[in-house]
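Researcher: Batch entry, complex prediction.
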Amino acid sequence: MPDVFADLVGQDEAVTELRRAAAAAAAVLRAAATDRTPALVAAGEAETGAGTPDPGTGMTHAWIFTGPPGSGRSVAARAFAAALQCAYGTGCGECPGCHTTMGGTNADVRLVVPEGLSIGVGEMRALVLRAASTPSGGRWQVVVIEDADRLTEAAGNALLKAIEEPPPRTVFLLCAPSTHPDDISVTIRSRCRVVPLRQPPATAVAEVLVRRDGIAPDVARWAAAAAQGHVGRARRLARDPEARKRREAVLAVPRRLTGVGAAFDAASALIEAAEAEAEASVAEADVAERAALETALGAGGTGRGAAGAIRGAAGQLKELEKRQKSRATRAQRDALDRALVDLAGFYRDALTMALRAPVDPVHTDTAALAGAGAQKWDAEGSLRRLEAVLACRAAIEANVKPRIAVEAMMLALWKG
Ligand SMILES: [Zn+2]
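Model: Structure tokens for the complex:
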């Protein structure tokens, strides 16, 4: 039976550190138990011959998991959370602590997954307050914050206060792309231990697709290379024909850039594809949430209270719509970013071919096209195009309107 760290692909160093910390955390709990009920635990300790553990080694209250998208930041944080709740302190994968944490139902593990563009201060204050309570399972209160780089400044300050004076049994696990001040404030960073994850090699990604998802080896190898080390993306490419179709449409862009008009058409197509993908990904949740809220508010009721309830409901529905809009915007940007990463891979292939670098192409299925590009553009022209794609990503990240950034990129790709 694989333990909770089994899904962390190609991250041996990080896993070693986390295992050591989980063991140290378990030792802290044993030591605390010894203090409170010396007689009871002393017998057990004498039996196993365990000495007094040093609570200062290995474990700490605040952690940041960093790494490129898809490297497994949130996978690592969840696995570590499970190891902290594990009855054996190892993340065995079989005990109730491991099971409930991995299944998302452990009462002492709170998961913050921002659906909008940022995590607000209200949400963070409520979270910090609850995290200060005594863990009901007797181990740790764990708060996992995915995308901690999306904290608003006020939310970051609320979190900082909690990290500066952590309740004795509370552990914060933050996930962010890097420890750059744009991603995480310097003061929060200074209070956390950093666990850097790397982009897993394609061979490791392919191996996990075969072993865990039962994907055929040749498909797994292709998807792992095409996904450029992003495990979740590789799995989607291997399994979802729609995802493959979208990728093919993106990789057809370089061929289609034959003039100014074609460049604008390509920009529109890319934006609209991202919108459609995002809409499909959030539509189901939107409908379900609205139905749940309407039921809770008693919409359609005919009792005497119904009219008043509906008046109060308007505000709540508005709030829900605001949240859903923010989530849709985020989903659109994520979809567009995936497309840009694919496109960058194509020009990176052209560049490595122009330089005759002995590396495998990212996109094996468009390698011939990239080779033709390499001949036409040479290394310099290929690099300029790659830079145009990266500049577009950076512009969108800096809040330039996506359509404007993508149009500028397409023109640059056409002109070279
Ligand atoms: Zn366990």
